[in-house]
Amino acid sequence: MPLNVLALAYGGGMLVNIAWARAATNPTPYQAALEGKLQLNFGWHWLNNRPVLWTVLIAIVIVGAVYYTLVQRSKPAHLVAPEGEAIAAEAPAARAAPAAP
Predict the structure, then answer these.
(1) Residue-range definition of the domain harbouring residue 45
(2) Predicted TM-score of the model (pTM)
């Protein structure tokens, strides 16, 4: 248990370390530019001033939210049994198997 707590603390610390907005771990496209040439360009000036990790994370969250809203919400609940099958709580009690001699 102490090793697991230590591992979780280390993982959380590294997550904060990597997500911290600084040029060494989470640069903006302008900070990551080499030899005066912009290597990564999001196409909007205001977006090029944001850290790359946060830009990508926010884009993934937005795409996931749109997908969930448009596709997943309209699917039937995962607890609905297929047609013709009974849910365990509604099924009649199973008969006990006869004991082996």
Answers:
(1) 2-63
(2) 0.49
